[in-house]
Structures are given as structure tokens and as C-alpha cells.
Amino acid sequence: MKDALFHRHSGNPVLTVDDVPYPVNSVFNAGATLVDGETLLLLRVEDRTGLSHFTVARSGDGFGGWRVESEPVLTPDPERFPEEQWGIEDPRITWAAELSQWVVTYTSFSSAGPLVSLATTNDFRTFERYGAILPPENKDAALFPLSINGAWRLLHRPVPKMAGVGAHIWLTASPDLRHWGRHRLVLPARRGAWWDANKIGVSAPPLETPKGWLVLYHGVRETVSGSIYRQGLALLDREDPGSVLARSTEWVFGPQEPYERSGDVGNVVFCCGWTLAGGEVRMYYGAADTAICVATASLDELLAWLENHGDPDAGGGR
After folding, report:
1. Is 202 a domain residue?
2. Is the dihedral of CA 70, 74, 79, 85 positive or negative?
3. Which listed residue, of 22, 168, 225, 235, carries a Cα 20 to 30 Å from 247's Cα?
4. CATH number of the domain that 301 lies in?
5. Assigned domain for 318 exists
């Protein structure tokens, strides 16, 4: 695509069900991080019951040679955590240097609806579950990598039941990762015919940059043929992440290739994780809820583009 910011890897998809060493239906929406010089993905794997769990995959270069664990690393545990009754989905990984741990936020699917859960790990072998931290209906939660003014910050997406209100990105704060409050609307979904009208959600955890917190988020366009999931960018203030400095008027990445157009859920590119090394951003995304792909971009180019194409009405709630 002309003037594309993100460039698809020529070997996409990089992970499919054929790479998982046990029978599954699909693999998609992976959290991503760097561990000991390797790329680690926490895969959302949907098994043949229709429920999801998490499995670890590692790669030396982040593109190929993936080593997928022979069994799940985190599975639903409804006896101890009843909110996981119908599976766990869409993990997002944040390295919290202050804790010397990785923090994983994910969606637990309870019988009363989806909600936000949290777990920590030192090695991606064992996890300490914190359980549900935000009640239903809520999804798409991503933690900032450091505490800001004495509090941890989390972006999330509650869904109100009132018709016509829309689903927006909110910010919340916590002293201990367990108790959350000071909720604040940050990015409202636009209205009307915009690509991100009525329903949006955070994608990967925010990246700290000299200009602010770079946020990747998805927008959902409803059409007569179904939903289209695309990705956009926003920039939040470093000291006050509830303040929006810029927000893209256009989507920057959308379903285009056959493997993104056709699958269990077509016309979907859905990112839960990205990595940054040497100025290169690698965005790992689920394609059509069926496979995992990667696209790369220059961090400097993303920031420059956002500066030139950001909405003057940064919140965008029109």
C-alpha cells in the first residue's frame, strides 16, 4: 500500500495451527515481549472445545524458527477463579522493571460476561494470578510499564449497556495492581462514519517515547457485510497519560491480504503485543482470528506521521 507505515513480513503468517504441537482450532492475538535476546509470544490458542488458553512460543529473530511449547502454560482454572469459566483470551505483556516481573493482563470470560484479569510471572512457566481486577463487561486492558506519580496506570475498555453510548478507552490507577480506581475517559470512540466510530479498544501496551506514550488501538467499522477491525495511533502525555496529545484521523493498518480477509472471523487485524529494539517496532497481530502475523515500522516514522496527521481535536469524540 502506498505510504504504508507498517510493512508486512514476507513470510506471513508466521504462526499457524500447524506450528502448535497438539490439536487446536486456531492461534491468534498474542502478547509479545523480549526475553534474553529472543522474542517471546504468549499465544491465544483456541482448542476444539471453543475455549481459549495460553501457550508460549519463542524465536531468535522474531520472524521464524518458532519453538512452540508442547503444552499450554496457562489454562482456565474455574474452580479457583470462576471468572475463567469460558476461557482466557487476548493476553498483553508488560515488563515492570520496578517489580522485576512481567505483568500479563488478559480477558477472562465468565458466565456473566468478559472481564479483566491479571497475573505476574518471572519466567513464563509459573504465574501468580491476581484474579479479576475489573468487572464485566470489560476487555482490552494494557498496563503502562512503570508507575507514574506513584501509581500504576491501566488502559481498558468497559462496554456500557446503554444503547448508542459506544465503547471507549478509559484510564485507571492502582497502588498495588489489585485495587483500581480514579477511572477517566481518555479516548472516546468517534461517531458517524469514521473508521473508529462507536467501538474502539487498546491494542498493545503503551510504548514510552521521548514525545510521550505511543498507543496502538483498534477501531471497529460496522458494515452490511460485518465488522472490519483496523489499527490506529494515539500519543499520551508522559506525566499525565490521561491527556491526549495527538490521535490519528486515519487508520494506519487494516486487513488487506487474503490471510487477513478470510478465516474464522474475516476482515480482522488484531494486535495484543509489539516489541521495540533499535528503533524498529514489530507489531504481532492476529489475522482473521486464525493465525499470527508480524509487521514492522520505524518508531521515528510513526511519531513523525502522528505529529503531521493527528486530529487537532485530540480526543476525537465527535
Report:
1. yes
2. negative
3. 225
4. 2.115.10.20
5. no
All 3 cell numbers of residue 228?
472490519
Residue by residue, DSSP assigns the chain as -TT-SSEE-TT---B-GGGSSS--SEEEEEEEEEETTEEEEEEEEE-TTS-EEEEEEEESSSSS--EE-SS-SB---TTT-GGGTT-EEEEEEEEETTTTEEEEEEEEEETTEEEEEEEEESSSSS-EEEEEEEPSSEEEEEE-SS-BTTBEEEEEEE--SSTT--B-EEEEEESSSS--EEEEEEEPPB-TT-TTBSBEEE-SPPEEETTEEEEEEEEEEEETTEEEEEEEEEEE-SS-TTSEEEEBSS-SB---SHHHHSSSS-SBEEEEEEEEETTEEEEEEEETTTEEEEEEEEHHHHHHHHHHHB-SSTT---
**Residue pair 155/138 in contact by the 8 Å Cβ criterion:** no
Residues whose CB falls within 8 Å of the CB of residue 94, separated by 6 or more in sequence, listed in order = 102, 103, 104, 105, 142, 143, 144, 145, 205
d(CA 32, CA 279): 16
Structural domain includes residue 243: yes
Residue among 74, 112, 79, 67 at smallest CA distance from 93:
74
Tally of structural domains, the chain? 1
pLDDT in tens, 209-235: 999 999 999 999 999 889 999 999 999
- Supply the range of the domain harboring residue 19: 8-309
Number of residues in the chain: 318
The type of residue at 264 is D
Q: What is the pLDDT of residue 318?
A: 43
Q: Is residue 233 part of a domain?
A: yes
Residues ≥6 apart with Cβ < 8 Å to 160: 166, 167
Tens digit of each residue's pLDDT (9 = 90 or more) over 9-54: 999 999 999 999 999 999 999 999 999 999 999 999 999 999 999 9
Instruction: For residue 94, give the C-alpha cell.
Output: 508488560
